[in-house]
Amino acid sequence: MSREMANEIKLLSGSSHPDLSAQVAGRLGIEIARTVSLNYSNQETSVTIGESVRDEDVYILQSAATGDVNEGLMEMLIMIHACKTASARRITAVIPCFPYARQDKKDRSRAPISARLIANMIQTAGANHIITMDLHASQIQGFFSVPCDNLYAEPSVLRWIRENRNVEQVVIVSPDAGGAKRATSIADRLNASFALIHKERPRPNVVGRMVLIGEVRDKVAILVDDMADTCGTLDKAAGLLRDANAKEILAIATHGILSGNAIETINNSSLSALVVTNTVPLGDKVSRCPKLQVIDVSGTLAEAIRRTHNGESVSYLFTHVPV
Amino acid sequence: MVRNIVILGGNSHPELVDNVCNNLGIAPGERILTKFSSGESRCEIKDSVRGKDVYIIQSAADSVNDGFIDLCIMVSACKTGSAKRVTAVMPLFPYSRQPDVPYKKAGAPLSKASHPTKNGYTFESVPGTPHPGITRTQSLGPDINGLDTKLARTKLAENGVNGTTCNKADGPQTPSGAERRNAPSGSSAFNYTTHDYQNHSLLANFKSKPGYKQWVAQAGTLVADLLTCAGADHHVLTECRMDLHDPQYQGFFDVPVDNLYGKPLLKRYIQQHIPNYKEAVVISPDAGGAKRATAVADELDMDFALIHKERRPTKYSEMRNASMMLVGDVRDRVCILIDDLIDTGNTITRAAKLLKKEGATAIYALVTHGILSGDAIPRINASAIDKLIVTNTVPQLEHKRLCTKLVTLDVSPVFAEAIRRVHHGESISVLFQFN
């Protein structure tokens, strides 16, 4: 019996997003490994491992919880390191929402490329494989020298649109030029039309002037982006679309970080709905924002883990939602 | 005035940064170090660092993880900004203090059923060999798991359940619950010098897999590796802590590490501020710190005593409850406790209590790092310590306001001198001896 148990999937959950871990574990039909993370009174993080990971295939799921990014990061690094020193066969960091993904280039003098730093740190800690979802810039994959699977929420998003709106009337809108590729990909697969908003961004978290390129009159305008943070962009874009006489305006974003006054901004905006996935813990935000809807991506993550463990291809998940 | 050098400070200890810069006669480098609303750190170095020798001062105070990630980001920003050399100056190294693993002396934790009194046990019943799948019986619990025991004990004390085994020799109880030495389950009361957890209830409810001995991850090497990978990797030394808790730490780094010592400062304090210090006794509160304390005692030609922490339960209840033994004589003398780090203050206040009981007239505690987290301040205030002397490797202003016994020594001249010497390629070792 004990021989058969060897090299199983061990799913370790960081403390940032226990709900997602539980859902993933449920879909895999396994139990979450017994670990507990605590803080010492001097604020250092302590991770206690309660079961053997020797020669097992370890998956550590940790998302970037809004507000506690650094705590979550350190906790994950300590967990990875702990599993490495405990002789795990392979350690895969499952990071649905990659922290610091937006700091991916040296856009000013002496600006840190924090995403690369984080990538290096995760590898230094001992991860052999990374699974993440909708990276802000897919080049971040290149920051790793170990395999990094970038999953897409797109199939889940497509399914949501097909199930909830009339595809004939939909126009997909990208709120900035950077997201045009993501939006056109969805528009193509829905066979819907496409529009783009050009914006100027003088400083981070501040949005300047915006121009709409494309036709949205009497259509259901769906703003598509990879993350909804302070929602300043989405709010302004929604206002622009309303002025352009769109029939309904909604927004779909993979990562619902929703920091700062995001909830108030959304509640007061012309958006009829904001759809996010559950890559980031939302806490009480769903109850505070009636416009917020959540797509569950635990199926995709669980299937990616299962396929990675069994050595099957993951590319199927780039275009399909697992059943 | 030193040229071609940039001193950057983290958010953890601005006073120290200013003091070090004043000592060097330069202004601290300008940087923006805040947080985005999402909780990610935002860092921008304003001054040019191209070709410069950059020193980044960050201690491990308040939110250790934030501070550490900030430091890594700053190091990497300077590195990508073409700094010639980046040196991380860490007055207190984060994660340098990890709990002693509650292993027994013999090493591997064997689960011997040491409580045959439990109901249902006969001479025939054999304790099972631990393997996956076996359900652990109740009586095996505390023996497999020292951590459980300890936490169960603190929890008990927290709930105000005062065990009846409390001994008279224990002296007046300090107000802290965690400090009580109740031995509720007889022989299983080991005393481990773990940190205090903020939220023990979580761990008390935590059960490891049957047959597996839970353990706490040690982050020490990890932190060293991460810092190296952030870019403090070039011939750069990491000015670690004033006192590394374990000197082995230097071996964790692949880069040069210069370890400064707080000893000269403490020694000078003894010479200048303790009247008749030659008559006083230097005490080490545990065997691990004996080397540190004897060094001070030897150099100042003073007497030395040691407190031995009794971890084995002995037959005599008085010994067990006292749990600390004084080796040496302190009657009618002034005692000077020397340690490297005071966190929650458990060890040192207990040591002070013992010294008072043994007849010490006055008790000074000289500690390099005064983290003073949790309920350390009220504990110190209520303890037998007359004066607590710490250095300002972590911010002490707030502590000082709350604790009248606290005296702080400024370490910034030491760091400034070390930075100057490293920059000019002079020897650091002189700093280790100066008087």
From TrEMBL, chain A:
PANTHER family in alphabetical order: RIBOSE-PHOSPHATE DIPHOSPHOKINASE FAMILY MEMBER (PTHR10210), RIBOSE-PHOSPHATE PYROPHOSPHOKINASE 2 (PTHR10210:SF32)
Q: Which residues form the Ribose-phosphate pyrophosphokinase N-terminal domain?
A: 9-126
Kindly give the PROSITE patterns that the UniProt entry links to this protein.
PRPP_SYNTHASE
> Keyword NADP on this protein?
no
A GO term (biological process) for this protein?
5-phosphoribose 1-diphosphate biosynthetic process
Q: What is its EC number?
A: 2.7.6.1
Under Gene3D superfamilies, the record lists: 3.40.50.2020
A cellular component term, taken from the record's GO annotations: cytoplasm
Reaction(s) catalysed (UniProt annotation): D-ribose 5-phosphate + ATP = 5-phospho-alpha-D-ribose 1-diphosphate + AMP + H(+)
Q: What is this protein called?
A: ribose-phosphate diphosphokinase
According to the UniProt entry, its GO molecular function terms are:
ATP binding; kinase activity; magnesium ion binding; ribose phosphate diphosphokinase activity
Which family does the entry's similarity section mention? Belongs to the ribose-phosphate pyrophosphokinase family.
- Could you tell me the keywords of this UniProt record? ATP-binding, Kinase, Magnesium, Metal-binding, Nucleotide biosynthesis, Nucleotide-binding, Transferase
From TrEMBL, chain B:
GO molecular function annotation? ATP binding; kinase activity; magnesium ion binding; ribose phosphate diphosphokinase activity
Specify the domain of life of the species encoding this protein.
Eukaryota
Task: Report whether Transferase shows up as a keyword of the record.
Answer: yes
| Keywords annotated in UniProt | Kinase, Nucleotide biosynthesis, Transferase
Q: Name one GO cellular component term.
A: ribose phosphate diphosphokinase complex
Q: Which Gene Ontology BP terms does the record give?
A: 5-phosphoribose 1-diphosphate biosynthetic process; purine nucleotide biosynthetic process
User: Where is the stretch described as Disordered?
Assistant: 106-143, 158-191
Q: Which SMART domains match?
A: Pribosyltran_N
| UniProt KW Transferase keyword | yes
Q: Residue limits of the Ribose-phosphate pyrophosphokinase N-terminal domain?
A: 5-100
Q: Per its UniProt record, what InterPro entries does this chain match?
A: Pribosyltran_N, PRTase-like, PRTase_dom, Rib-P_diPkinase
Q: Which family does it belong to?
A: Belongs to the ribose-phosphate pyrophosphokinase family.
Record-linked PANTHER family? RIBOSE-PHOSPHATE DIPHOSPHOKINASE FAMILY MEMBER (PTHR10210), RIBOSE-PHOSPHATE PYROPHOSPHOKINASE 5 (PTHR10210:SF36)
Q: State the NCBIfam families in the record.
A: ribP_PPkin
- The name this protein carries in UniProt is Ribose-phosphate pyrophosphokinase
Q: What is the lineage of its organism?
A: Eukaryota, Fungi, Dikarya, Ascomycota, Pezizomycotina
